Amino acid sequence: MLSFSTGKSTKFCDGLSRRNFLRVGALGVGGLSLSLADVLRAEAAAGKSSSHKAVINIHLGGGPSHQDMFDLKPTAPVEYRGEFNPIQTNVPGIEICEQFPRLAKMADKYVILRSLVGSAGQHSNYQTHSGFSDRSLQVVGGRPALGSVVTKLQGATDSGSPPFVSSNGGSPGFLGPSYKPYTPDSAGRNNLRLQGSITTERLSTRTNLLQSLDRFRHEADRSGSMDAMDVFTQKAVEVVTSGTLADALDVNNEDPQVRERYTPDGANFLLARRMIEAGVRVVSFSWGGWDTHRDNFSSLRRQLPKLDIALSALIEDLHQRGMDQDVSVVMWGEFGRTPRVNATAGRDHWPKLSMGFLAGGGMRTGQVIGSSTRNAESALDRPVDFQQVHATLYKLLGIDVENVKVLDPAGRPQYLLEQRTPIHELL
Predict the structure, then answer these.
(1) What values do phi and psi take at 331, rounded to 5?
(2) pTM above 0.90, yes or no
(3) Are 337 and 292 in contact (CB under 8 A)?
(4) Which uninterrupted H or E stretch holds 101?
(5) Can you give the pLDDT at residue 193?
(6) Which residue in 184, 335, 370, 386 could disulfide with 351, CB within 3.0 to 4.6 Å?
(7) CB-count burial class (<10 Å; 0-12, 13-18, 19+) for 393
(8) CB–CB of 369/380 below 8 Å?
(9) How far are the Cα atoms of 27, 141, 202, 227, 300 from residue 211, in angstroms, in the given order?
(10) Per-residue pLDDT tens digits for 30-67
(11) Cβ–Cβ under 8 Å, residues 374 and 366
(12) In 6-109, where do the E strands start and end?
């Protein structure tokens, strides 16, 4: 049997497991042991779609200050309005923080949510991953992250890259550990390439490949099915030998001028775009530190210009590369910050209201959805729940969130969300 490491286990919509070790020629008597090649064959037989809708989920951990970024209140009392001024964008009537000059020039390419509600108030990215508090369905393992659901329902694209890549977790919940995201840490990256005595040349030749399948060949029927199986076996090998995801994770492969546009602080934004191009369906990462109980404005003066550069570069890239109709970008945090500035020039936790930022995906951009009260303490109109954002992302991915159910460990069918109505203004 021939084995080589490719990273962590994932599982796909047909319910079969793609193990950490791809086993070529591992089909035992009676089909009790399945290789990746068999999974690929089953996916093709099921007529899986080759379309590649995708999501980039950016978590601003700690709770970003909504009223200092995209919902400034210049006429509020001084103890509420903060230290920044609003600037006009290229969309008449939409203003954002003066620390975002690049984003101000492309407001026609994104959407601002000023009335995001429903925060669980937890210092966690569980809700931005799943739409739920980590207490929901805890007895059966909790709710799965969007990326885990996509892994189960849609599986991998033709590239063979993992459907869900996350550097900031993402619980598979009741779906089980087989639906955990691939984590692109140093160990995971090493496992994406062939190592040791197994070389691309050895695996690429049909003769050597079939030698490793000798045991299976003797047990296969002799009606020509082996020739069909060879196609999928070779494709399984190509997943690793191509090094597609490994190449995507190496930003040195990117045009130096593009890397310069993102700057080192925006490396994760660039990596996200590269991973989507490599075939990943959902990419999630955290950026910055936003728990600004003290010195809120000093922290934002350091971070907002960097965010402006990285996020605008990502949006610009998606449009230049023709990816803006297929790749949805969402940026948010676990909650907002208090309307009143505290005694240490900070803002504290404020679950009652927060902000959301959306781009791409073929959405109707160039608009603001919802508004907040005078001091940005609550939604004034059009409140949008975290789950409605997730419902919109599922819809854009081609998943029928209003009807699709998945089974929990007790065998009970569960809807993906409790609030399943997408944001109609975006569609």
Answers:
(1) -135, 130
(2) no
(3) yes
(4) helix 101-104
(5) 54
(6) 335
(7) buried
(8) no
(9) 14, 43, 11, 14, 60
(10) 333 444 455 445 545 544 444 599 999 999 999 999 99
(11) no
(12) 10-11, 17-18, 21-24, 54-59, 86-88, 95-97
